[in-house]
């Protein structure tokens, strides 16, 4: 009986992994209100286009992710938000972002930004010690050491590699060929990838991160859809413009 129960728990946790990844990308960094995580959370003046030969498939995936958000992810995040105070949720978010310091630091080095890499290193040391593993951000509040928001996809962009084609992945959302390869690079730089824990436990931790992050931004996607004539096209344009603005900053 215990074996069956354990198997059921693992099944549920693994299911949550796939469900909640729709809102999750290992965060590259955060300065509380200033850190941009969503492709539709910034208004860019860049006029950038991308080939979309897979539009029919992409629209199916967009619809799938949309339904997943409204019927599964959002309700779960709302329940979590109801029982966990915002201050704690923000602290947990900072902890996960602090954990992703190697992603930002190494990509700063790859982009020829040794000073920024040093800032990320100092932030990691300060926040991991005086900030209680990153729950607080004394590096920013006391020393004005702000996050250097870099990832592998941006590094490819700095090397002038184009996006290729636009693609919407189930669970992961909007991307491109370049950024999809970049996500794989970020995965290899993520300390959790090499943590000594069962696969289901690592997945459960990522699921928890996703629900926590979503609980802090409920309403953003809804506002985005409400203001778009064609949410798919608006998302595609916003995503590409957002990524280009990150490379050019």
Protein architecture, described:
By secondary structure, the chain is mostly helical. The chain has one domain (2-248). Helix content is 62%, strand content 3%. It is built from eleven helices and two strands; from the N terminus they run αααααααββαααα. Strands 1-2 form a two-stranded antiparallel ribbon. β1 (166-169) and β2 form a beta hairpin. α1 (2-20) packs across α9 (199-215). It is globular. The termini are far apart. The relative contact order is 0.20.
Q: Strand sequence of the main sheet, in spatial order?
A: 1-2
Principal-axes geometry comes out as: globular
Q: Helix fraction? A: 55-70%
Count of alpha and pi helical runs: 11
Beginning-to-end CA distance, first to last residue: 57 Å
Structural class: mainly alpha
* Total strands: 2
Major beta sheet, specifics? 2 strands, antiparallel
Low-confidence stretches: 1-30
Percent in strands: under 5%
Q: Can you give keywords for this protein?
A:
249 residues, two-stranded antiparallel sheet, mainly alpha, 2 strands, 11 helices
Q: Quick summary of this structure?
A:
This protein has 249 residues and is mainly alpha-helical. It contains eleven helices and two strands; from the N terminus they run αααααααββαααα. The protein has helices spanning 2-20, 55-83, 86-99, 101-110, 114-129, 138-141, 152-158, 177-189, 199-215, 220-226, 231-248, and strands spanning 166-169, 173-176.
């Amino acid at each position: 009986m215990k074996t069956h129960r354990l198997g059921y728990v693992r099944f549920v946790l693994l299911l949550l992994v796939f469900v909640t990844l729709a809102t999750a990308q290992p965060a590259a960094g955060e300065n509380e209100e200033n850190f941009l995580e969503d492709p539709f959370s910034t208004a860019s003046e860049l006029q950038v286009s991308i080939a979309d030969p897979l539009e029919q498939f992409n629209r199916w995936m967009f619809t799938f992710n949309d339904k997943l958000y409204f019927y599964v992810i959002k309700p779960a995040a709302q329940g979590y938000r109801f029982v966990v105070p915002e201050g704690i949720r923000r602290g947990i978010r900072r902890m996960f972002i602090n954990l992703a310091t190697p992603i930002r630091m190494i990509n700063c080095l790859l982009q020829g930004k040794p000073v920024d890499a040093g800032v990320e290193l100092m932030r990691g040391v300060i926040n991991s010690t005086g900030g209680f593993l990153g729950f607080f951000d004394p590096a920013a509040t006391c020393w004005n050491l702000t996050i250097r928001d870099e990832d592998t996809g941006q590094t490819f962009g700095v090397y002038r590699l184009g996006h290729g084609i636009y693609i919407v992945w189930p669970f992961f959302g909007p991307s491109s060929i370049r950024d999809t390869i970049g996500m794989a690079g970020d995965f290899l730089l993520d300390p959790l990838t090499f943590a000594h824990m069962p696969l289901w436990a690592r997945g459960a931790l990522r699921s928890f991160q996703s629900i926590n992050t979503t609980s802090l931004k409920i309403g953003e996607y809804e506002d985005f859809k409400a203001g778009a004539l064609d949410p798919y096209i608006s998302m595609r344009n916003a995503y590409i413009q957002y990524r280009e603005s990150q490379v050019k900053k």
